[in-house]
Each structure stands twice: as structure tokens, then as C-alpha cells.
């Protein structure tokens, strides 16, 4: 059963280096070159699932561009972890809600590394609201602009550079499928992302670019102490069949599988690392 120390961070986005215990980002197995020579851009790549994915991609041979908002210490830590795997990392601070930034981030990635093979749309925002009437217009706008506008803008920017064999992987959520009583706006954006995955998969199939999604359940990331009250943090993840929260490195392998040629016959699909919650059936 999950049993984290009660904690809360009074800033958003959350900081991984302030979490107790630290999330487990470390890859579990030796690399086998599954992304050798590839270039990947990961949004929200400074911490949580994004960090674990970036470090795993580096172990598998990829060069990384890391998009993040302003968590510079976490981003520098992630860069060092990528370099420790023998990889290269380009840090790209900015706001995915701005199309101009997304265009520049992709352009800078291609300028640095010469191409783009994998796009991971992962950056997100959430805030709990008990009563829909208390959901402010500012929060609604921020949630949608971060979680779905940002995915559209980054994908639009990437399409000028993605070629046959490229892959797009997007982070949706278990809440896209089952809903959430206090994350209504967030869950709505995750439903939109699931539909975006399925639509773009059809749109790009003739270009032989695959598009898939990953729908995590409760994962121990900076989202949790940032957006939840301390008492909920303490029991976070205990509601799923496995009775515990997942770790970022238990999700990153899904992104690797979908990004590499192991998933060459898979597009328009969603993987469910969620601790046993049954969805969609």
C-alpha cells in the first residue's frame, strides 16, 4: 500500500528535487540500441515521467531535446543523467501554450541535431476542484492550453520534420477513460488527447508515421505534492488494485516501446500502466 510522507509544494510546476521520497527514474535494464541515431523531443522532460522517458531514450541511443517551463534545477539534473548515459541533451525552457515557442523549440532541436524522429507530448497541468462552479476561467484556460493546445502546437511544428518511420507518443491518462471527480477539466483534456491520438494516427498512416498514447494511472511525480493536499499525498495510489502508486520508470518503458521499431505494427493505440484499473472493456 502506498504510504508517502504528507507533503505539499507551494509552487507550480512542482519540483522533483523537493519530493520525499524521490521518484524512481532509473532505467531497469541495459540498453540495446533501440533508438540508436534517433533524435527525440520530450515536453515536460525535466521531471517525472518525462525525465524517466528521456533517460531511458538516452540509454537506448537517442539524442534528447528537453522542453520544460522553468524548473531549471530539475532540467539540469535530467541533462546530467542523459549525459551519464552517453547521450546529448538540449534544454529548451518555455511555455507550450505559446505556438511561437513550440515552433522555435522544434527548430532549435533540428538546428542542433539535424533532424527529429520522435516527439513525446507529455507536458501537462492539473489542479483539483471539488465543485465545478468553483472552476475559474483562468484555470480552465490554463488546463486546456497546456494539455491540449500545447500538444497541437508541438505536433504542428514537428510535422515539417518527421519522416517515414517517425513516431509521436502522447501522454493521456486513466482519467480519460474513467473520469475523476475532482480533476474534471484535466480529465476532459486527457479525453481530447486520446481522440487526438486516434485521429492523428489515421491522418499520418499513409506517411508511415505512427501515433500512439500512454495512459498512466497514479504515478509518483511532482504533480502529486504540487496539486494535492498532504493527506491525499500520504495515501496516493492506494486505491488501485495493486494498492500502490507507480514509479516513472514503470511508465517510461511504454514510451520506449511505442517510439521504437518494436511497435512497428501499432498506431492509434493507448497503453495502460495504471496498477490494474480496468478501462475500455
CATH class label = Alpha Beta
Along the chain, the helix and strand elements come as: EHEHEHEHEHHEHHHE
The residue-averaged pLDDT reads 94
Q: What's the total number of strands? A: 7
The total of helices stands at 9
Which descriptor suits the 3D outline? Answer: globular
How would you sum up the major sheet?
Answer: 7 strands, parallel
Quote the beta fraction: 5-15%
The CATH fourth-level homologous superfamily = NAD(P)-binding Rossmann-like Domain
Distance between the termini: 26 Å
GO molecular function, one term: oxidoreductase activity, acting on CH-OH group of donors
InterPro entries: NAD(P)-bd_dom_sf (IPR036291), Sc_DH/Rdtase_CS (IPR020904), SDR_fam (IPR002347)
Keywords: Oxidoreductase
Protein name: NAD(P)-dependent oxidoreductase
Helix and strand layout, with pairings?
Elements: E1 39-43, H1 48-59, E2 63-68, H2 72-84, E3 89-93, H3 99-113, E4 118-121, H4 137-158, E5 167-171, H5 175-178, H6 184-204, E6 210-214, H7 223-227, H8 230-234, H9 249-259, E7 270-271
Parallel strand pairs: 1-2, 1-4, 2-3, 4-5, 5-6, 6-7
Helix pairs in contact: 1-2, 1-9, 3-4, 4-6
Amino acid at each position: 500500500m502506498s504510504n508517502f510522507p504528507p507533503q505539499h509544494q507551494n509552487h507550480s510546476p512542482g519540483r522533483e528535487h523537493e519530493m520525499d521520497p524521490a521518484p524512481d527514474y532509473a532505467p531497469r535494464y541495459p540498453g540495446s540500441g533501440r533508438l540508436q541515431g534517433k533524435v527525440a523531443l520530450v515536453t515536460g522532460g525535466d521531471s517525472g515521467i518525462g525525465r524517466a522517458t528521456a533517460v531511458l531514450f538516452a540509454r537506448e541511443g537517442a539524442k534528447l531535446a528537453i522542453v520544460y517551463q522553468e524548473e531549471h534545477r530539475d532540467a539540469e539534473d535530467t541533462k546530467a543523467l542523459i549525459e551519464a548515459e552517453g547521450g546529448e541533451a538540449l534544454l529548451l525552457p518555455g511555455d507550450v501554450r505559446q505556438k511561437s515557442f513550440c515552433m522555435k523549440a522544434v527548430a532549435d532541436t533540428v538546428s542542433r541535431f539535424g533532424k527529429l524522429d520522435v516527439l513525446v507530448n507529455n507536458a501537462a497541468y492539473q489542479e483539483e476542484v471539488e465543485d465545478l462552479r468553483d472552476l475559474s476561467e483562468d484555470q480552465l484556460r490554463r488546463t486546456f492550453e497546456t494539455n491540449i493546445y500545447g500538444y497541437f502546437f508541438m505536433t504542428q511544428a514537428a510535422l515539417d520534420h518527421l519522416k517515414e518511420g517517425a513516431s509521436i507518443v502522447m501522454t493521456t491518462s486513466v482519467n480519460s477513460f474513467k473520469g475523476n471527480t475532482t480533476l474534471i477539466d484535466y480529465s476532459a483534456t486527457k479525453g481530447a488527447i486520446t481522440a487526438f491520438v486516434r485521429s492523428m494516427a489515421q491522418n499520418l498512416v499513409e506517411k508511415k508515421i505512427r501515433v500512439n498514447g500512454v495512459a498512466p494511472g497514479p504515478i509518483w511525480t511532482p504533480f502529486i505534492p504540487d496539486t494535492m493536499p498532504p493527506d491525499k499525498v500520504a495515501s496516493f495510489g492506494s486505491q488501485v488494485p495493486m494498492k500502490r502508486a507507480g514509479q516513472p520508470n514503470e511508465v517510461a518503458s511504454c514510451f520506449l516501446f511505442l517510439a521504437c521499431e518494436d511497435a512497428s505494427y501499432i498506431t492509434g493505440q493507448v497503453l495502460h500502466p495504471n496498477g490494474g484499473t480496468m478501462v475500455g472493456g
